[in-house]
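Case 81 in the screening queue. Each case pairs one protein sequence with one candidate compound; here the compound is iron/sulfur cluster. For every case the pipeline is the same: read the inputs, emit a complex structure as tokens, and attach any notable structural observations.

Predict complex for case 81.
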Amino acid sequence: MSRIKVWIESREACISEMVCTVLCREVFEISREDGKVIIKDMWRTDKLNFNEGVVSGDLEECIIAAYENCPVEIIRWARIE
Ligand code: SF4
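Case 81 output:
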């Protein structure tokens, strides 16, 4: 099964209204530190980098929903082998 790289292009632009966490809670959550989006710990390639992860391909649909509905368009994704 393919995997998906997902990243936040410009985290400081997040307006914290939680569309992504509602549409794709498996991948995105809101930081308790600053209230902005982060990639869930379990998917991060670097545990200290909140902005990037590699997730299972079966989450593609929910990632696309988050990508398409983020009002400030900061969610990015790409299929990888
Ligand atoms: S949908 Fe976009 S603006 Fe809203 S919380 Fe997620 S990343 Fe931030």
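Case 81 observations:
- The first strand starts at residue 3 and ends at 8.
- The mean pLDDT is 96.
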